[in-house]
Amino acid sequence: MADNQPTVWQCEPHTLAKHKILTNYLEAWVPIMSRHAQKIGSNRSIAFVDAFAGPGIYLDDTPGSPIKSIRTILEHAPLPKPIHLYFIEEDEKRYNVLKAQLDLLKSDIKNSKNIDVHDPECGDCNLILNAWLDEFDEKRKSFGPALVFLDQFGYGAAPMSLIERIMRHGQCEVLTFIEARRLNWTLGDEAKRRTITRAFGDERWRDVIGEDVGKRSTALRHEYRRALQNNGRAKYVWDFAMLDEYQKPICWLFFGTNSDRGLEEMKKAMLKVDERFAFADSDDPDQLTMFNDCGSDWLRARLESHFAGQVVTVGEVRMYVLMQTPLVNYAELLTTLQSENVIIPIGKRIRSFLRELDRKIRFPDVGLPY
Ligand SMILES: C[S@@+](CC[C@H](N)C(=O)[O-])C[C@H]1O[C@@H](n2cnc3c(N)ncnc32)[C@H](O)[C@@H]1O
Fold it and tell me: Is 52's C-beta closer than 6 angstroms to any atom of ligand 1?
């Protein structure tokens, strides 16, 4: 789909934040998955696909996502198992610039073991990825472990049917970008109906048209999240919004995975970025809560009120923290709460909240003196 940007364009602040999240995640994901591939089979490898690769450079010489990902991965060389990197760009001029940028890294790549950067492809990533996936299906082989980065302009170029095909391969993950503001503006435009439906995989997004204007953005985010789980087959979805100075979302990044470890690492990657980020608060569904407002005291209050009076497993607390809050540090907090006798373990004292996930703990009733 044509856009109105030049071949190479100016890098925007939200792009830098997006790159930081991607490279933070790759830093954690590549060594973990490479070791995992080593454990599960001698001929296994992992893959990173940048399906909307862009030209690889911005007007101010900021490197694009392909270059930043390669550099990040090079820092982890040598890897125990190969990683294959694929780049797809539809626009021929941008593709030529990208090719030249990738050529500049050729000798570094050649000197590193187990990092295989494939020649970029020029074309529509939907066609190219579907053709690859057809080959895997024909050979009855599973694709992945792979991270597929779907960094489109707008919202209509990465259809849910493509995400569903990727996620059918259980060890694949997607990081997909949606321009929230643009989607919101075009919501009532009948000419965009098919494109939006293609993005969501069904027409339930149309219910949002009836919402108050102020609530539409949040409602759309809920809908896309639901669509990623129901239509895109992602077991775990995490999303966050990048906000403008009026706290309104400019864009969203959605992460879909079937791995709770992947979810945990992505959230750590997001927490390391110091930007105007917000997450969707499940306790207050109409509200975006700023990351900066969520420290250990916030999490403590949240756990004490959510689990008040209940006996739950450590694993349940972990999943609550992972799925309903922007934080990951449940083990640290439970350790403190146990040492203060706020939570009581059933049976003997819990030594490791990271490992003893099946152990049960009792939370006090709200308001009772400890
Ligand atoms: C947001 S830019 C990508 C920026 C890049 N990922 C980065 O962070 O540096 C989106 C790119 O996708 C390309 N594109 C648009 N539709 C595409 C499609 N269907 N398949 C592949 N590339 C596409 C555009 O030409 C544009 O260069």
Answer: yes
What's 159's domain CATH number?
A: 3.40.50.150
Last residue of a domain, one of 276, 293, 310: 293
What's the rounded Cα separation, in Å, for the pair 61 and 56? 9
Is 285 in the same domain as 308? no
Q: For a substitution probing ligand 1, which of 153, 162, 163 has the most ligand atoms within 8 Å of its CB?
A: 153
Domain that holds residue 304: 296-362
Q: In this structure, are 340 and 281 located in the same domain?
A: no
Residues 159 and 20 in one domain: yes
Same domain, 265 and 320: no
End residue of a domain, out of 237, 271, 293? 293
Q: Which of 249, 252, 253, 264 is nearest to 323 (CA)?
A: 264
User: Which residues, 6+ apart, have CB-to-CB distance to 223 below 8 Å?
Assistant: 200, 204, 205, 207, 208
Report whether 248 contacts 221 (CB < 8 A). Answer: no
Does one domain contain both 53 and 153? yes
Atom of ligand 1 nearest to the CA of 50: 6
- How far apart are the CA of 369 and the centre of ligand 1, in A? 57
Q: What is the pLDDT along the chain (370 residues), one digit of tens a residue?
A: 568 899 999 998 889 989 999 999 999 999 888 888 888 776 778 999 999 999 999 999 999 999 999 999 999 888 888 999 999 999 999 999 999 999 999 999 998 888 999 999 999 999 999 999 999 999 998 898 999 999 999 999 999 999 999 999 989 999 999 999 999 999 989 999 999 999 999 999 999 998 888 888 889 999 999 999 999 999 999 988 888 777 788 899 999 999 999 999 999 998 888 655 666 666 566 666 667 777 889 899 999 999 999 999 999 999 999 998 889 999 999 999 999 999 999 999 999 999 999 999 999 997 554 4
Euclidean distance between CA atoms 200 and 231, whole angstroms:
8
